[in-house]
Amino acid sequence: xxxxxxxxxxxxxxxxxxxxxxxxxxxxxxxxxxxxxxxxxxxxxxxxxxxxxxxxxxxxxxxxxxxxxxxxxxxxxxxxxxxxxxxxxxxxxxxxxxxxxxxxxxxxxxxxxxxxxxxxxxxxxxxxxxxxxxxxxxxxxxxxxxxxxxxxxxxxxxxxxxxxxxxxxxxxxxxxxxxxxxxxxxxxxxxxxxxxxxxxxxxxxxxxxxxxxxxxxxxxxxxxxxxxxxxxxxxxxxxxxxxxxxxxxxxxxxxxxxxxxxxxxxxxxxxxxxxxxxxxxxxxxxxxxxxxxxxxxxxxxxxxxxxxxxxxxxxxxxxxxxxxxxxxxxxxxxxxxxxxxxxxxxxxxxxxxxxxxxxxxxxxxxxxxxxxxxxxxxxxxxxxxxxxxxxxxxxxxxxxxxxxxxxxxxxxxxxxxxxxxxxxxxxxxxxxxxxxxxxxxxxxxxxxxxxxxxxxxxxxxxxxxxxxxxxxxxxxxxxxxxxxxxxxxxxxxxxxxxxxxxxxxxxxxxxxxxxxxxxxx
Amino acid sequence: xxxxxxxxxxxxxxxxxxxxxxxxxxxxxxxxxxxxxxxxxxxxxxxxxxxxxxxxxxxxxxxxxxxxxxxxxxxxxxxxxxxxxxxxxxxxxxxxxxxxxxxxxxxxxxxxxxxxxxxxxxxxxxxxxxxxxxxxxxxxxxxxxxxxxxxxxxxxxxxxxxxxxxxxxxxxxxxxxxxxxxxxxxxxxxxxxxxxxxxxxxxxxxxxxxxxxxxxxxxxxxxxxxxxxxxxxxxxxxxxxxxxxxxxxxxxxxxxxxxxxxxxxxxxxxxxxxxxxxxxxxxxxxxxxxxxxxxxxxxxxxxxxxxxxxxxxxxxxxxxxxxxxxxxxxxxxxxxxxxxxxxxxxxxxxxxxxxxxxxxxxxxxxxxxxxxxxxxxxxxxxxxxxxxxxxxxxxxxxxxxxxxxxxxxxxxxxxxxxxxxxxxxxxxxxxxxxxxxxx
Lengths: 521, 439
Ligand SMILES: Nc1ncnc2c1ncn2[C@@H]1O[C@H](COP(=O)(O)OP(=O)(O)O)[C@@H](O)[C@H]1O
Ligand SMILES: [Mg+2]
Description:
The complex is a heterodimer.
Chain A: E1 6-17, E2 20-31, E3 35-39, H1 46-53, E4 61-66, E5 69-71, H2 76-81, E6 84-87, H3 99-104, E7 110-111, E8 115-116, H4 118-132, H5 147-160, E9 165-168, H6 177-192, E10 196-201, H7 204-210, E11 213-218, E12 221-226, H8 233-241, E13 259-269, E14 275-285, E15 289-293, H9 300-307, E16 315-320, E17 323-324, H10 330-335, E18 338-341, H11 345-349, H12 356-359, E19 371-372, E20 375-376, H13 378-391, H14 408-421, E21 427-431, H15 439-454, E22 458-462, H16 466-472, E23 475-480, E24 483-489, H17 495-502
Parallel strand pairs in A: 3-10, 3-11, 6-9, 9-10, 15-22, 15-23, 18-21, 21-22
Antiparallel strand pairs in A: 1-2, 1-4, 4-5, 7-8, 11-12, 13-14, 13-16, 16-17, 19-20, 23-24
Helix pairs in contact in A: 13-14, 14-15
Chain B: H1 11-15, H2 26-45, E1 54-58, E2 66-69, H3 70-88, H4 95-120, E3 125-127, H5 128-154, H6 162-180, H7 186-214, H8 219-243, E4 260-261, H9 271-275, E5 277-278, H10 280-298, H11 300-310, H12 312-317, H13 322-348, H14 360-370, H15 375-398, H16 404-422
Helix pairs in contact in B: 2-3, 2-4, 3-4, 5-10, 5-13, 5-14, 5-15, 6-7, 6-8, 6-13, 6-14, 7-8, 7-13, 10-11, 14-15, 14-16, 15-16
The complex binds adenosine-5'-diphosphate and magnesium ion (MG).
């Protein structure tokens, strides 16, 4: 480190929120052209630290040095002026504006009288895009872009402001494996051109792969540095969590019983009327976990919506325990014994302005014992909510907090607590159950899914995370272009075979086959 | 299944309600309505008239008179209605087809008023230039009011107080003229009156901004407060100043704002007298519409405003001052509303009455929503409402045998049909009505 100059240094940086010491005397160094990994559980204080550096929060104590000079950063303008760019964990884009407008916003090129000079801006964007391999269409509306491209827009925003230090806060959390590869290529190009990067993640494999150095945070403190070349996923995980963590799912072999869910000849269209699920067939048995693998956007979302009664079907039948539940209301589906942990938990899994206890009765508020006639039975509601949040380790465990105040991981635990604890579940649908969660929470949630399976529930797991599918499923169905392209027992599957299927290439076939592949293995 | 014990429902009925078979769509409802009206026209109305009768629409010699065989016209429109209705009822879901259905229904809606006009003026002639001219004039406060709403709401502050801001402007503008008239030339007094009206709208907006941006009060509540405040304040001032003056309200007569003619353009036939000749607030409307459009879409300020109204957090992370942006936009909106208020008391009339804005501030909001928060769209909305008022007057002149009250309702019914039926889902700026709080 002696040979490369330090571009950013943080000394004793401290930030308190009411009741939380989010950053506790943090020391950190970033050298020119390196990728520094910042690792820590949900709530460890990573985003807070970055917001301090970017001027969105003001530190209570400590100092920030840029190129060896102590600076005070009042607001993002200061940070931008000093060459700091940040891609936030939740993208800060305006969906109805174009890529160019989003990138130039706040730093517009104008021709006298404040008239925008879009052409000049576009030219610079295209130059930057070519230089760093960030392909975008500057005229596209951001809302029409896939997340991977939106992220490129965010990175371009920073580069457009001549960022020398780029903070990427959990950049891979929302990306597909292919998009992650693309991002890593971009990071390589950036560092080769002298940009220094802080890469935040709790995905150990990525950190090991891309970072030159790793700093680990736990509960607001730096617990140590690690050299990725001499670390393993296990060693980093225990540093991060403070105990040893089981990264592999430990489960007895499945004992499948009767058929619970049977889908036949299902055809679905998406919101724009495009057919996304075609002639789909699937069967899930009690006591097994069926994992649906596939690149996002191959019809998984619509399939789940149809099963749970949230989307009208074009044709086909969905049977639950032999009973036809095609096209019935979500309430009837729930009553029939389907539990659903939705893909987008904040949008479809909870009401963030409600208290935790009220979120716990979202599907059962109208029934005894939660309701007595038209009145709510608060005693039972509170008692149940108390029991469930404790059983699922939702922290902080105050059921009178609003759901929105919980961290992402704890929101997911709360949603899971509700869905897993409702009585008489026959079918459990879990979509992206661990997206954005840290290793400790993932371990816990995986255990709970296996527990439900062993109690005889049929589990339908949908995930774009290949490792999750491989380690948790008993049987794997790969979905491609709206169909199941192949099904196999999990012990006969590996990353390569599934990866090929996800790209639409079937084992026996030498070349990708157009639609029309048989649905039987 | 214990959880499925709702035994009242038989297997088939809980699977398929009638809703599965009959889809109620917007196009369907309006298609039926159109079919009904077309049939009524063809079978009941047209046959009752002598087919040789002619309706003449005159334009004061600006362009040649239009003469229709009234019954032929009715039959033609009836056929268009029936076919449009049937077309809208085609039970196939297809995007292009859907757009075509809505376009046809829109044409039907647009034909409605001329048809009623041709029927009511049957055998006589009626002056259309007058209706055209008054339609544009009556649209003035609605269009400018809608622009006021756009400035506010595009930056993320809901403004239902346009009515109150207009009323304040109308009242104080008139009081200014009333008090200054003895000392100044009437044009100078009027100029100051318009200026004060504009500024007072801005002051009311400042109050709205202060309540809803700084104190993050619910913006509907803040708007309602301002509307009520404006009603009370203006009626108090009217009692204390206007009615208390010696000789009462009519004590000073300054007349309305002068009529100006734009050189060259005002000599054009038809649009010359209707569009390019008129009083100053009316003429300013065109400048304001174009100005708002250009600022919103082609300048730095407009870009920032749209960003702040959609995603203030994103704007904040790029160093844009969200609070300042909102304050300025709300105040600009208020200035426009106050200016529109002067139209009532200084341009259309030269007096002030309690509640004289008559709900047009709310119609302006409807025009804004009709235009999906765009200046040009809102202008079309405002003109639509202005013209339905002008036609109402025309019907009153023609002594249509329909109760007066129903004719009075026309602009409001048009508002409802247009908002519910043809605009479709209007999407407000994402952050509209959501106070911004920096953490
Ligand atoms: N604006 C805020 N107000 C109060 N507490 C906050 C705020 N932001 C973060 N926290 C708390 O600070 C801690 C660190 O959060 P954060 O920096 O977001 O963690 P990470 O990014 O590592 O997941 C958490 O306990 C979180 O609840
Ligand atoms: Mg974070």
